[in-house]
Amino acid sequence: MPTQQSSNAAWLGLDLGTQSARAMIVSGNGETLAIGSHKLTSRRDGPRHEQDPEEWWRAISTASRAALRELPPGFNLHGVAVDGTSGTILLVDGDSRPLTPGLMYDDTRAVEETKRANEAGAAVWARLGYNRMQVPWGLPKLLWLLSQQHGWALGTRLAHQTDFINRRLVGGEVATDTSNALKTGVDLVNERWPHEVFAALAVPDEILPEVVRAGTALGVVSAEAAGQTGIPRGTPVIAGMTDGCAAQMGAGALNVGSWNSVLGTTLVLKGVTPDLIKDPAGVVYSHRSPDGNWLPGGASSVGAGAIAKHFPERDLEALGVEAAEREPAGIVTYPLHGRGERFPFIAPEAEGFTLGQPTDKIDQFAALLQGVAFIERLCFDYLDLLGAPVDGPFVLTGGGAKSPYWCQLRADVLGSPIALPENAEAALGMAVLAAAVGRKVADVAREMVRVREVIDPRSDRIARFREPYLRLVDELARRGWLAPAVAQHAHRRAAP
After folding, report:
1. For labeling, which of 78, 125, 146, 157 is most exposed (least CB within 10 Å)?
2. CA separation for the pair 20, 17 (Å, rounded)
3. What SS3 class is residue 418?
4. How confident is the model at residue 4 (pLDDT cuts 50, 70, 90)?
5. Please, what are the domains in the chain?
6. How far apart are the first and last CA of the chain?
7. Cβ–Cβ < 8 Å for 235, 78
């Protein structure tokens, strides 16, 4: 298999998001050679969220053709990998035709099926570290789909979003990857389906695809797929991952102890550990890395959504300049946009709050920025308590990473340098994965992921945030949302 040292080698990453499909062709040294995209549409009705799988294929084909038209001459594709939204599934027939719509990652119709899955698989889910299935996950949705079927044709298979595309690319049946299969109940320790659980749930073995680790070669692009996508016939197709894992790969956070913190409307952390992290609270769950390490992560409901709520249509950069004079702010804010928290604690009843009265809008804005940074730090304190290495490096991505001041503030609150990559798209992560066959994915990422800037914490500012951070921690514990043991650990880690 060619490696990055081939000067004319390029890899294609395909990203199936909620709103669009994106194709990115990347060279071995991380240069983005060409990009293509195409929009997607959804059908939403209350708890239901569906997409047409055929539209996925059309969008992938259109995006791929657009990127390949822009590819400079002299480059040859040496592999392709695709990511998809986590927990999105459907049923297909033996000819890869969809038998059902695609039930999307946030479809929450399978409430009763979730209860059944948790009763049947409690011991397995606990052993895998996440303790319970959640309503939007793949296995409850599979049970719901099967309950709607009155028998199925020979060759019917469960397919995740990525499986559907991979089947079309190779022109036949393919294995599913361990990353996309996590929420469908795959045993990531033994890398197989827990057949005893599926038997208890009346899920027939014959509908389950084979399971392989992400990064495994699945086959090659068929002549028919080449005609539709423009991807050269014979291009290796590599088992991909979920979109969240793909973005982590695009950020290059793939060495043990490194973490990717994605700040958008909400805050998502994903890192690397040598061993499976088991969280008794079920807040953190882990994917399996292509190289055998574990990729724990969690998603908080705090983030830039609170900024948009309180400061709509304002010049945030200008506000940030003024907020830099309020370190720390005169108030402490828990910047929860809506109701309910899920990381670093689970509290469906949690709501945002402020301790004290802001002196003006700048004080309020500064407190919101600092509040997000405090929750980010608390997430790392919680991960440290669970035994996860959190010594860094830390890579910041997402919309929040576009604010120079907020990045500096987060480095100061964490007390650690942070890195900002040039590009951390999920499609880039899939290009990295496609290039990593036969190599360690962390080594490949080191060659292909470019760092734009490293921001060091300001030594004279780190101590300023200790007292307001611990005030927030203590208030979260006083309200009964944060476990006392977590609050105590945060105090120990903050000690001078």
Report:
1. 146
2. 5
3. strand
4. very low
5. 9-244 (3.30.420.40), 253-423+459-494 (3.30.420.40)
6. 52
7. yes
